[in-house]
Amino acid sequence: MPLLFEKKKIDVEIFQPREPTPDVEEDAEASGDEGTTDMPTDFVIEVRGMKPTTDADTIRYYFESHKVANADVVKMEFVEEKEMYMIWFEEESAIEAVMRKSLRVDGQTLNAKRYVPPPPPKPVPKYENKVFITNISPATTKDRLQNFLEAKSKCIPEEIIFGEAEGTALVTFEQPPDIAKLQTLCMKRHLDGSHLIIHTVPITDCIVVTGHRENTSSDTMEYYFDIKRRSGVEGVREVKLVEDERKFLVYFNDPDSALQVCKREHKVEGQILKVHVYYECLGQASINDDGLKFKSLKPTESWDDVIKHLRELCISNPESVTIKVVKEDSKITIIGHKNLVEEVAEKIESIITDVIAEHDSYRKTIKLRKKLL
C-alpha cells in the first residue's frame, strides 16, 4: 500500500548506517599508492637515475623511440619524493623491450625496473568489546548514557571515558556487543534529543607516559620500556615526545604489551610515572577516569568557607557534572564532560583565590591590631 503525504506518494526505505572508523586513514596517501589508483598497473615501469635538468618530454620521447620501446607512452608521472618517473605502456611487449636495453639519456645511465604495486593494507584489528561514541548530547549524564547503552546492547558497560571533544566517549563492555545492531538501534532511538553515532575502535599498541623529569629523553623511555625485567614488557617500536604537553607516546610491536605495562608501577630517574593506554579517538593522551583533581586549602576555617561557596555554586548543566569533596584530604574532584569540567574548575579556582585573599586580609588586620595594642 503506497504512503501518502499531503496527497503525494512518498518512498520509504531502511537506512543502513555504514561503519565509520575515525582512527584509520583510508585515502590513497595512507596506502602509499597515491596517484596510481586511477589506472591499471599491469604495464608500468619505474625509471631512476636521470639528471635533474632532463625534462619530462625528453624522457617520454626516448622511451617511445624505436631504439627503446617503440610504443606509445600512455601516461607518465614524476614521483618527487622518490626522484623517479612512473611510465605506463599499453602492452607487455613494450615492458620487455625496455628491460632488454641499456638506457642512457643526456649522458646519464638510467635504472628501469617493472613497477610492483604494494600489497593491499592489512585490515586493522578492532576491539570486540569497545566502541567510540560521538554526538552525545551535553544534557546526557554518564549514568543515562550507561543505562541507554545497556538497554540497547543487552551488555553491561563497565567503563566510560569521555573524550577531549565534547559529545564523545570511549565505552568498554563486559561482553562484546553486536556493534552493527547497536549502530542501527542508536540511529532509530535518540538519547536526550541526539542520535548516538557508534564507531568501532582500532586496537591500540600505544601508551602515554607522564610524571617524568623535565629532562628525561626519548632514549631513556625507550630503553626502560624495552627491558622486560624492569618494565615487564619488551618490543618497543617507537617513542614520540609531545614537547608542548611534556608527555611521551610509547608504541609496542605487540598491542598486548600496551595493556600489560599499565598494570604495574614504573619508576624512572627517581620519578614514579603515570602510564595509561592511549586511544587516539579520544583526542587526548592523558586519561584520568576520576576526573579533574586539585587540592583546596588545608586550614579548617578556609576549607569550611570553600564548602560554603560550593553549595552556592551555579552550574549551567548540573546533570552533566559531578563534584566530589573529600574533607579529610582537602580534595575536590570534578567529573563530567571536558568543557563543563573546565567551566566548573575555573569557578572553583576563583572561589579558592577569593577565600585565600579574604583570610590573608583578615590575618593582616589582626596583626595590625595587636601592634597597635
From TrEMBL:
Transmembrane segments: none annotated. Residues 22-36 have a biased composition (Acidic residues). Residues 16-40 are annotated as: Disordered. GO terms for molecular function: nucleic acid binding. Gene3D superfamilies: 3.30.70.330. Pfam families: RRM_PARP14_3. This is RRM domain-containing protein. It comes from Mytilus galloprovincialis.
